[in-house]
Amino acid sequence: MRVLIVGSGAREDALSWRIAESPSCDAVFAAPGNAGTASRGVNWEVAATDGKGLAERCVREAIDLAVLGPETAIAAGVGDRLRDAGIAVFGPNRSGGRLESSKIFAKRFMERHEIPTARAAVAHSLEAASKALEEWRGPVVVKADGLAGGKGVVVAPTVEAARAILADWYGGGRVPGGGSDVLIENRLEGREVSVFALCDGRAIAPLGAACDYKRAGDGDTGPNTGGMGAYSPPDGFPDDLDDRVRERILGPLLRGLCAEGEEYRGVIYCGLMWTAQGPYVIEFNARFGDPETQALLPRVGGDFALLLHSVARGAMDLSLATLSQRRCVGIVLATDDYPRSNTALQGLNGDVSLAEGCRAFWGASQRVDATVSTSGGRVLTVTALGDDLAQARLKAYEAVRRLAGRLGTDALTYRTDIALR
Question: Which domains does the chain have, with CATH numbers?
Answer without folding.
Answer: 2-93 (3.40.50.20), 125-180 (no CATH), 191-323 (3.30.470.20), 327-413 (3.90.600.10)
